[in-house]
Amino acid sequence: MAKIRSLIVVFFGIFLFLIAGCQTSKKITESDIRVALAQKLMLDVRYYCPTNNKNQTCTQPLTKLTGDLANMISNTNLGGIILFSDNLISPEQITHLTYDLQNAAQNSSSQIPLFISVDQEGGRVVRLPREHATSFSGNMAIGATFAKHQDKFAKEVGQVLGAELSVLGFNVNHAPTVDVNVNAQNPVINVRSFGENVDLVSKLGTSMAEAMQQQNVISTLKHFPGHGDTNVDSHTGLPLVSHGIERITKVELAPFQYAIDKGIAKMIMTAHIQYPSLDNSKFVSKSGESMTLPATMSRKILTDLLRKKMKFDGVVITDALDMKGISDYFSEEEAVINTFAAGADIALMPFKIRTPHDLSKLDVLLDKLVAATMNGRLDKQEVITSAKRIAKLKQEFNLSNSNKDAIDKKLIKVNKVLANKAHKKIETELALESVTLIKGSGTLNPTAKRIHILMPDENKCKATLHGFGQNHQYQISCSDFITGTFQQVWQDSKNADVLIVGSIFPSQSPVEMGGMDDWPEIRKKLKSQTWPKSNRVGDIKKLLARAKAAGKQSVLISLRAPYEASQFYDVTTDILATYSYNQSTNKENDVSGVAFEAVTQILMGKREASGKLPVTVIKPQ
Question: Which residues are catalytic?
């Protein structure tokens, strides 16, 4: 094994030497270009059906590396893989999968290790199973602790996320989000941001990234040049930011510049957003429409601004190219060529691999990319320089030692690290310290005996009831938006002393559900709810207003973005914000979540709400 590792280091060094253009005795060949371009691709293998033909839909999660997929990685010198929650079932299974992926890369001609990446932001966007890993309450919860704790939780969360990912075999985490969320209607960022204050976001984002990288996991700062002031989700459309350059520099670009200046930024992810003040160049979409270039494909933004003006010398990775902000306007081939021409180093998820028929797509794409390089559409020296940049980052984080331990030794480490007592303690402390009181006392009236709760779904009912525990002081009932109706809830709450409503704003986005593959199912679920989104706010207001008018305590728990509190301010006696509604189910089928544990502790008067709003909630005059 030691001999193999030595050979890997040697080959890795040779590749770096070659792509640096220093090996004057050897001309750079098409084969060298092909390896360099393969290193610039990061594919997803979320689903894979070895027996399906090209006309069959595949929804079978890939949880074990197949021989043909291993050969694809080995034969092409592929640079990276991204995994999703469907790929990740248990600690043992995840460890075997990442181990086999790296072995496939070691069997390639270059023997360059893989980037194995994941979106493990914490809070609403996690891919590791919540019952096995530490998930946390998310970035805005960390932002809510800043006034009291500064960057304490950013560092601790970064360290835990990094440690747990590293021991499982991941080396890239597409986190944290350093978008400054200044738009209350933002459908995709909101609580994934630390807040609306530029300095707060800059400091917390950089601290988290640094802590993660200390655990040998590369942090991806996203989404450049900034996704915090959009009201369109780039998963489902193409947003536009119309601010002037001065404002963009002071707000959107500032967290990225801060991390670059501190030397912490190693990888930055692009945003599929139009920024006409930064680049008003036009392109003709595949439907023939003339449009402004998105940042992901803008050379002025990725090369002239990010590389030259902001002095970023790390790796630029695109956001997923299957998102509608790109796929609705470009073919797969054109999307990759345009991103590389703009200055991106890595194209993330350029096409789907779902069946054996799809395996040839990688060779076809590489053929086209090589041709584009040889005919001058892509600059050969830029391709080589980009591959060198990728190789340098892999070497800096010593990825060639990914499989230095045998699998049994790796599993021993996994069992010691994953969701251990110290990690779970930090998760609990963050949830408790972040809960924010927006109105009222935040505690149940001393005379309250009967409580009715309305939650978005049955599991959140169970998690809330679990939070109250075996407290015989109260008679508690709970209904939910999925199975209950307005009249049923009102009847249940008429006999209660307190009505508690847990609300989520806005609806979940595809990134929270897993990715673009989930979008059709998300739309079906939203349409099937008994309380449609269009009526829900009005109905909740009626329920809370009736309860308040009847002399009851009416409590709103904002479980996600706290902006919604302004809509319910006049119809409630109390409002609390948790920034999170994570829950998981254990082996005994008990449902619980740290956010629910924390907020019920505060409602029962056992803890005080010490969080401070990191965003502005407009209160009625």
Answer: 319
